[in-house]
Specification:
Length: 310
C-alpha cells in the first residue's frame, strides 16, 4: 500500500510532465498515421505545394483551436464579455487583458509546435510541398549543376517515380529531407529557448518565494478537484430536491445555494496581491466580511499588479 501511495504521489506531482509526454506520443502517432495512411503526394508541380502544406499546417491549426477550446482560463476571460465588455478590459486596462491572452496562447501553442516539429523531422509533408514550388531560386538550389531534366522531374522525386538516375533521385530526396529536419530542429530549439526564458522571467518577477508558489499551485489544483466533487454532489442534491417536489406535488424544501453575484465573484480571473493572503477568488469571496454586498460599479473581472494564477 505504501508503495502504491508513493507511485500515486509521484504521478500527481509529475502530472504536467506526464500530460505533455502523452501529448507528444499522440502527436507522433497521429503524424505516422497521416503519413502512412492518408497522405499521398500527387507528384504534380501544380498540386504538390498546396497538398503538402495543407497536411503540414492544417493539423497544427486544428490543435491550436482545440488548445483554445479546452482552456478554462480563456472561458473565464471571455464568458459574458459581449454583455459586459468590462470583463475584457476593466478600467481600460487593455495591457492586463493582452497579458492573460498571451498566457492562454502559449498554452494553446504547445500541441501545434509538437506537431510541426514531428512532421518536419519526418520530412514527408515538407518534401512534397517544396518539390512543387515553381520559384527559380528553389529549383536552381536543388538542381544546381544538373541537367534541365532535373528541373522537370523534381515534383516526382518524393514519390520515387522520377525518370532521373537512381543516384540523382536519392540525392534530391536527401536534400529535401535534410532541409525539413533542420527546420524541425530550429522550431524545437526556438520553442525550448522561449519557454526557458519565459519561465525564468516569470520566476524572477515573482512576488512570492519558491515554496509559497509551490504551495499556491498545489492549492489551486486541490481547489479545482474539490470544486468538481462538490459541484457534482450539490447538483445531484438539487436535482433530487426538485424532482421530489415535482412528483410529490408539494413546496420544495429550503436549499442553501450561491446566488448569481456569488458565481460572478468566484468566476473572476485571480491576480495575486501582496496586500492580501488569498490564493483564489473563491477564498477571497469566502473570507470577505460582507458576502451579500456587491458593488455594481466594480467590474466583473479585475486585474491587479501581480501574478495571475488561474
Amino acid at each position: 500500500m505504501d508503495a502504491f501511495q508513493s507511485v500515486l504521489r509521484f504521478v500527481m506531482n509529475q502530472k504536467s510532465t506526464i500530460g505533455y509526454s502523452f501529448m507528444a506520443i499522440l502527436t507522433i502517432g497521429g503524424e505516422r498515421i497521416f503519413s502512412m495512411v492518408s497522405f499521398q503526394c500527387p507528384c504534380n508541380r501544380s498540386q504538390n505545394f498546396f497538398y503538402g502544406l495543407t497536411f503540414l499546417l492544417s493539423p497544427a491549426f486544428v490543435l491550436l483551436v482545440l488548445g483554445y477550446f479546452f482552456s478554462t482560463r480563456m472561458w473565464r476571460l471571455f464568458t459574458g464579455c459581449c454583455l459586459n465588455p468590462l470583463k475584457l478590459c476593466p478600467r481600460g486596462n487593455c495591457l492586463g487583458c493582452v497579458k492573460v491572452f498571451i498566457r492562454i496562447s502559449v498554452g494553446a501553442c504547445v500541441a501545434p509546435v509538437m506537431w510541426l516539429s514531428v512532421a518536419l523531422l519526418n520530412g514527408t509533408f515538407y518534401e512534397c510541398a517544396v518539390s512543387g514550388l515553381e520559384s527559380n531560386e528553389v529549383v536552381n538550389l536543388f538542381c544546381k549543376n544538373k541537367t534541365y531534366k532535373c528541373k522537370m522531374e523534381l515534383p516526382r522525386v518524393p514519390c520515387g517515380k522520377s525518370n532521373l538516375p537512381k543516384e540523382d533521385n536519392q540525392e534530391l530526396l536527401l536534400m529535401l529531407r535534410a532541409q525539413s529536419q533542420i527546420l524541425g530542429w530550429c522550431i524545437i530549439i526556438c520553442a525550448a529557448t522561449a519557454g526557458l526564458i519565459g519561465i525564468c522571467c516569470n520566476n524572477c518577477r515573482s512576488q512570492v518565494s519558491y515554496l509559497q508558489l509551490t504551495f499556491w499551485r498545489r492549492y489551486i489544483e486541490k481547489e479545482k478537484e474539490q470544486f468538481e466533487h462538490y459541484a457534482e454532489d450539490y447538483a445531484t442534491k438539487l436535482a433530487n430536491r426538485n424532482l421530489k417536489s415535482f412528483f410529490e406535488n408539494r413546496d420544495p424544501e429550503a436549499f442553501p445555494f450561491p446566488d448569481h453575484t456569488a458565481w460572478e465573484e468566484i468566476s473572476k480571473l485571480y491576480t495575486f496581491s501582496t496586500s492580501e493572503q488569498y490564493y483564489s477568488t473563491l477564498q477571497r469571496y469566502v473570507d470577505r466580511a460582507e458576502r451579500d454586498h456587491t458593488d455594481e460599479r466594480k467590474p466583473v473581472l479585475a486585474f491587479e499588479e501581480g501574478i495571475e494564477m488561474s
